[in-house]
Design brief:
Elements: E1 6-10, E2 20-25, E3 28-35, E4 38-43, E5 57-59, E6 62-64, E7 71-73, E8 89-95, E9 98-102
Antiparallel strand pairs: 1-9, 2-3, 3-4, 4-8, 5-6, 6-7, 8-9
Length: 103
């Protein structure tokens, strides 16, 4: 995903493990999630049926869709295991007070 548009997103401080922020970036809804100290960014749309993932339960490195219970891997976007539908994941870089997302 290198070479894409980079957009800065401010994060609430502190933004510790388990924190989830819904960001509106360039016409997209993106979840920024702190998974045990590692930040992940994923589109806010379940690849199964398009439901919002915001409000889903974080289970290790996966997010459970609040509408259907599907587990989405936050590192890969893969839902329901290998070969399942995928959500878009974004490259993310920590900067002071926030992150840079690469779209």
């Amino acid at each position: 995903m290198s070479g894409g548009l980079q957009v800065r997103v401010e994060l609430p401080q502190p933004f510790g493990p388990g924190a989830i922020k819904l960001a509106f970036v360039d016409g997209r809804q993106i979840l920024i999630v702190n998974v045990e100290g590692t930040l992940r960014a994923i589109e806010n749309s379940c690849p199964h049926a398009g439901a919002s993932l915001f409000g889903g339960k974080l289970i290790g490195g996966k997010l459970r869709c609040p509408s259907h219970g599907l587990l989405i891997d936050l590192a890969t976007g893969c839902a329901g295991g290998e070969g399942g539908p995928q959500a878009q994941v974004y490259s993310i870089e920590l900067v002071e007070g926030g992150v840079l997302l690469t779209l």
